Amino acid sequence: MAHPYSVREIARQAGVSDATVDRVLHGRPGVRQSTVGQVRQAIRDLEAQRLQLELTGRRFMIDVVADAPARFTSSVKHALESVLPLLRPAVFRARFHLHEQWNADECVAELDRIAKRGSHGVVLKAPDVPSVTAAVDRLAEAGIPVVTLVTDIPASRRVAYVGMDNRSAGATAAYLIHQWMGTRPGTVAVTVSNDFFRGEEEREMGFRAAMRAMDPGRAVVYLPGSDGLDQTTRLLIGEALAAHPGLRAVYSIGGGNAGIKDAFEAAGRKPEVFIGHDLGPDNVALLREGTMSAVLHHDLQQDIQRCCRIIMHAHGALPDANAGDASKIDIITPFNIPHRF
């Protein structure tokens, strides 16, 4: 792979030694295939952030660590690369540690590697479990500020949470389903991707409380642990449709919405109301074809920009980071999809 970057620059981006990068670049043996991929990805990331490398100003190297389906992590990566030029005169570069179906121990190991290697800050999407909380605290001890994104770890020493008010989002989904279902009978299915993501738990709690208040007689079926992937979610919804002939609405907290569509089609049915989160390509397609009724969306680029400003503030580079406001929730229907999607 041709590139203009030094061995040291690539090593810093990849989080490996200079010697490892040199072996990969010259095709020498003794390097695991996963590490080879890591070095090659680092070169691609440097290429995507090339404009930042040419700027002068206070420099920040941050790490983005996320346990999420690829459709979400690719949106996070694109959002960060889009906002980097907006942070001038500061110069931000980012290393990405993005994984599907990551267990907590692997996430903790990555956070500990960052603490050992050093970083100006970590943007983190991870489950709220004691081992991750402890790893965040170790980063704080090392002087590395952590900002949680989309889902919080409130008992940790993270400096801020950036994302929507998840209880409000869940209540909004309940309101929409109640309004659109009206007095018609029908069970509602609620899916989550991980029982330990606090953001998803709070959405479920907000949904449950609002449905109980507005429509106490409507049956709700909770389907935990779908992992947010299409295949797993399709199986869970398929089983729910077989067990609940009256299932007519879905609130998809954790994603896998193409799988939900497939499960309904396999059963010869269509959801009367289908609410999800985030305007990824799959959800946009489902909105346009009329399968999804609405998507609760927040501007990920604005969220990422706030994360970077909070990290700058933690290092004394900004007087105020405006860390306290929740992200605005937009209700997107098939008729108001933003043009950039």
Q: Please, could you describe this protein's structure?
A:
The chain is α/β, with parallel strands linked by helices. It has 13 helices and eleven strands. The protein has helices at about 5-15, 20-25, 35-50, 50-55, 70-85, 105-115, 130-140, 165-180, 200-215, 230-245, 255-265, 280-290, 300-315; strands at about 60-65, 90-100, 120-125, 145-150, 160, 185-190, 220-225, 245-250, 275, 295, 330. A six-stranded mixed beta sheet has the order 7-6-8-9-10-11, sandwiched between helices. It has a five-stranded parallel beta sheet with strand order 2-1-3-4-5, with helices on both faces. Helix 1 (about 5-15) packs across helix 2, helix 5 (about 70-85) crosses helix 13 and helix 6 packs parallel to helix 7.
Supply database-style keywords.
341 residues, alpha/beta, Rossmann fold, 2 domains, 6-stranded mixed sheet, 5-stranded parallel sheet, 46% helix
Quick recap:
With about 350 residues, the chain is an alpha/beta fold.
β-strand percent reads 15-25%
Tell me the overall shape: globular
How many β-strands, per DSSP? 11
Distance between the termini: 32 Å
CATH H level of the largest domain: which superfamily?
Answer: Response regulator
Instruction: Briefly note the structural class of the backbone.
Output: alpha/beta
Main sheet characteristics: 6 strands, mixed
The stretches of 5 or more residues where confidence is low (pLDDT under 50) are none
| Average pLDDT metric | 90
CATH topology of the largest domain: Rossmann fold
In which range does the helix fraction lie?
A: 40-55%
- Number of helical segments with 4 or more residues: 13
CATH class bucket of the largest domain = Alpha Beta
What is the architecture of the largest domain at the second tier of CATH?
Answer: 3-Layer(aba) Sandwich
Radius of gyration: 21 Å
Total domain units: 2
Lateral arrangement of strands in the main beta sheet: 7-6-8-9-10-11
Which series of helices and strands comes N to C? HHHHEHEHEHEEHEHEHEHEHEHE
